[in-house]
Amino acid sequence: MAAKNVPRIIKIIKDLSKNKTVGIDTKLLDSGVIDSLMTMKLIEMLEKEFSVSIPNEEFTHFNFNTIKAMSELVDRLNIKGSKKK
Question: Residue 38: which H helix or E strand, with range?
Answer without folding.
Answer: helix 36-50
